[in-house]
Amino acid sequence: MLLIRCPYCGERPEVEFHCGGEAHIARPDTPAEMTDADWASFLYYRTNPKGLHAERWVHNHGCGRWFNALRDTVTDAFVQTYEMGAPRPDAGNASSTATKAA
Amino acid sequence: MSQPFRLPGGGRIDRSKPLSVTFNGKRLEGYRGDTIASMLLASGSHLAGRSFKYHRPRGILTHGSDEPNALLSVDWRPEKGAGRRDPNNRASVVEARDGLSVSTQNHWPSLETDIGVVNDLLAPVFVAGFYYKTFMWPRSFWDKVYEPVIRRAAGLGEAPEVPDADRYANRHAHCDVLVVGAGPAGLSAALAASEDGSKRVMLADEGFALGGSLLQDVTSKIDGQSAAEWVEAAVAKLDARENVVILPRTTVFGYYNHNHVAMVERVSDHLDEARDGLARERLWQVRAGQVVLATGSHERPLVFENNDRPGIMLAESMRAFVNRYAVAPGRSLVVATSSASAYRAALDAKAAGIATRIVDIRLEQDCGPELAQARSAGIEVLTGHTVIKALGGKRVKGLVVAPLGNGGAIGTRRTLDCDCVGMSGGWTPSVHLFSQSRGKLAFDAELDAFLPGQSAQAEISAGACHGVYDLKAVIEDGAKAGGGNITVEATASFTGFQPVRVLPTDVDPGKVRAFIDFQNDVTAKDIKLAVREGFTSIEHVKRYTTTGMATDQGKTSNMNALGLVAGVLDRPLPSVGTTTFRPPYTPVSFGALVGPARDELFDPVRKTPIDAWAEANGAAFEPVSLWRRAWYFPKAGEDMHAAVQRECKAVRTSVGIFDASTLGKIEVVGPDAAEFMNRIYTNAWSKLKVGGCRYGLMLREDGFVYDDGVVARLAEDRFHVTTTTGGAPRVMAHMEDYLQTEWPDLDVFLTSITEQYAVIALQGPNARKVLEPFVTDIDLSEEAFPHMAVREGYICGVPTRLFRVSFTGEAGFEVNVPADYAESVWKALYEHGKQFGITPYGTETMHVLRCEMGFIIVGQETDGTATPDDLGLSGLVSKVKTDFVGKRSLTRPDITAEGRKQLVGLLTKNGQEVLDEGAQIVADPSAQVPMPMLGHVTSSYFSSNCGRSIAMAMVKNGRARMGETLWVTTPSGFTEAVVAPAVFHQVQGAKADA
Amino acid sequence: MRRFSISALLKEAANGHQGWERQWRAPEPKKEYDVVIVGGGGHGLATAYYLATVHGITNVAVIEKGWIGGGNTGRNTTIIRSNYLFDESAALYNHAVNLWEGLSQELNYNVMFSQRGVLMLAHNHHDVISFKRHVYANRLNGVDNEWLTPEECKEYCPPLSISKDIRYPVLGGALQRRGGTARHDAVAWGYARGADARGVDIIQNCEVTGLQRHHDGSVKAVETTKGVIGTKRVGVVAAGHTGVVMSRFGLRMPVESVPLQALVSEPVKPVFPCVVMSNAVHAYISQSDKGELVIGAGTDQYVSYSQQGGIQIINHTLDAICELFPQFTRMRMLRSWGGIVDVTPDRSPILGKTPIPGLFVNCGWGTGGFKATPGSGHVFAHTLATGEPHKINEPFSLDRFRTGYLIDEAAAAAVAH
User: Transmembrane ranges (chain C) (predicted)?
Assistant: First the structure.
């Protein structure tokens, strides 16, 4: 069972959390203007990387807050958890979609 | 049976506490401190079981949890009746206790005479993987003949037949250092880690006595103390430290992510008297800051013909039986070895007065100081000898050995008569938990073993599992792992061994049955066959031959198998791969893993504040998500149908009272509450007036209906949202997700109030009359309080949010009151309502009534693939809003395509016939299979108000099919039904919205 | 290929089994193949087999980064059934069951397909409606599936508790008698042997690292750790690692990879006659020919390639098993393990074209791919051979995520695969 550091509460066992999938996929501002393919890409297509992965978690049996985490999907080790809205720690300029919601 | 093989003195048994157990119906005697294995040996018998495939007689191979052969069915408390027997217990670790009833397994008619041994005669046919090559013809015979026969032959013990009479416990713990294993390394590590008192230390050991290998060490001195004294002192020190928890009988079986370690403690099976309610086992889940693995090592058997005969055991186990249990495993012993450590067993046996000889595979010059010691003790040692085979059937009678000459030549055979053999092919560090922690193993050619390499978690290995075998080094390694730094003086251990895979023989190896995996009956030949057939990865070999897959998970066999495969392929051992170790280290009972999560604690039942009243008033209940809800209220002599019809009538003619407390309730509060609602729901909310209610529809982002419910606006900045019963948690999560992650700019708070408010629905023409006397501060008149409105005031003096809503079509109210007052308010309403014939009704009547009106239930009419338009609810989808969750998906090509299923009503031709919910609908029942299907029935009831059956269905192009006759499946065929609008009842008089 | 038979076995028994040959060769890759299949699991090997036997295309390589059958093929709970709700799914899985029924004979390899019946338990009103919907739909689709009362469930599976007093009492069940189990490893080995005998090269310990394309964008070659291999058509059948392989080819996929755990008990004498699935309480159980109770657990909630999940998943599954079979609490877990399953948004597989001409994909089987192995291989071979999907896999296109033509069995029925 993972040990997850909630940015607000500290380390807690995984059973207190729910994983919300890949992070930094901002909901588009104007969905109506998107093509079906682009909309499908937003809805369904995921990076699913073998290695570092930014993902969303919510401390739903704790403080109830959402946050992001950078985790290695091979070792399951967390590199860092960080507040919603903060950029991906290792992102640099790589992720252009990472700004809004996130 | 008496104890003819019990040694007169010594051992760690308590001779003042004699005991007896029943073994296959006979009495077996021993002492506290014995295991079943040592008691059996004390009686002079080695025969303890039959092997899996060939039913060969098998004895006791080991003294620990790696035992593959001696598996017993144990009834732990036969005096207490059924429910405490389980199969496949290892005799070598079952702690002896007065009254245990044990029996051997996998034989018929008896252990001594087993018909199954015929398989042994067919061994030339029953080789590895033989079943893949035959049993294919005739085709039907696999299921009917071959497989049942194979299944009966396979398996070991008998599964328990009756529910378990014991209970199990579960405990979570944290510590700074968890030490696994209380041998010399583990004790030393625990001492070091706990010394300054700043760290919480846990020490767990699978055995019932602490000390590990020192328990059978009667010769070593540590800092001047005997091994026993050193252990005793160490344990006493640890015991005295408040920061240390010592857990004997506790197997660490799983090493999971982030130092989450699972262990099982055997709590009461060993107790003479276990008080009622004491758990049998306890699952510990420990989150450790640091883990010290001091798990020791496993001895390797030697691989030679008939190496599986009863009486042949591991050399260190022989030593344990002599020293720890004071048992002579035979009168005439031979120790066969390629390892120095086995000399200690021989010396100790000799010292105990048992005739002992040594056969060493190693050449004279490759042996260490152990050789001279043995000879000076008067032990005959044959160095440079191989073991050709063992003699004897149900008990070893002798070993045929021969000298190894130059260039592989084998000299003249010689037979050593004996009744017990101790063998050692060297040692394999127990790296199971290290591997489970995902640490990388590294092969050490010198030690011929995989050792812990790069760690993946906060963990460190010490002692034999770390490849350190000399006692002094082991203790110092343990201390280092525990964060200390000590030097001890200890007797030098006999270490070092020469790896051997299969012992050289002078006969055709293709005819020799030399066992690698004892329990699964895998021979060296089988492994060679697998390699010949192209199974060259060790994982393939394992799966093809089943080596290493028995209940011991290959603890004694894996390295021999690996080495053999590497040898046959002439490749370096690591290139063949190592098997990955998975939890559990040793088998763990389901009960321990389940813990208290049984019966009422399996999944908690949610009950409403009205539940007790419903139960007292004879309700039948049904489970709805986690809740139990009143289903219907049968009167004496009524069945469900009669009760529901009566309840339905009552609501439409007078008044019914219904517990709707399970509805999900969420408060959406804040300056941006209306904007938030606009984005989450398909409807528009800005224009909903304070005091008004509106039915809201919610989609997932993919456009499919997610939930629905009535929403009340209590203030400009406050909405009281209701959700479906099952949907409450996920709707709350859905809203929070969007609010926090997509729209953090919105100033809104969400609060779940499902538990805080109970909901009492009063429905029917007399609803208002029942309510009126109790309500204050609210004008209940039709004009002041119309349908789809909400008012706040008091009922019975209790604050209420009173909704004028209806899920029945009748005039109705839903009384929201703080949960603690709900039962008293309910009772007041019910008492007063009696003059109107008030009728409590349950979920079934609620379903019928709403179906009569054509109201959908999300999850019944919808199934996660329905859009608002499919349900005829496109009117609820705002055309004005530019965006809301799910809007974009509604314009995808397939969502707007022709031919989607649409919600309609269905009326059977025969009004008495009630369709099956889930029944499929076709246009032509005589069409060929696969038959084109048009849709399915989603809801179906007999409606007394309509005087006939009614149904709702999702039908392709349904709205264009009004009046069309379709065919609906029945259990035996089809029946006709006509497509109709999904509204079946016309409310008379005071309607909901009148 | 030397045929397996009882007479061959007896003959070899007399000569110490020295005469058996390799079941498949260990060739070095050639410079070029007509088709390269990435992934040597059951689906990939079956695809190669049917390419050779049905379409006569034998210049085929199966590239496997580890050892064949080492992924989900060798890690699943071997349940086989076809009682799916949607027409599209029923056609696909029933195609597979039809092939399963003759597979041992077809391959001359005993895959031990055992039609012991798959019983799916209903524990609430919603389950009852859902399973009846399945039963009726299956009947019209020619798929066997029948509704059993609780008493009939008990008769079919005597260890089952149908007590009314348990937390989620059994209200009935849907039984597919043609369903059952098979020996998972044997499926991979049998297909491998059959394909190899017809000329297919099975290349183990070889990882695909990239894709080379022609100027028009079409497939030219795959790059591997054993060199560049030219080909016009590539079929990616990499299960949990599909996302990884496709990302090396420059494509994102609508899949996520999560750990799925399973466990077996110690072996015991026959005690469990069929397969029982209970979605409401998350439990799947059968007994293997060796005597182990084989129990499927749930998935972990996060993306992971670690083949290891948390113990809480195992605990939860056993809670459910012991609720339905209370006599099993004294049984012991012998082994637990994890596989990496690739899950699509609608829990149905993707079988067909990709945006790259010549590149095809077979993935997204989630937790239920084993049962489809023969059918999947058969229609995917058709797709690779002709460049177009077979009628059966046409609906399972990647494009459905654009159009919204989802085949969402899970949403429709709350039934895991």
Answer: none
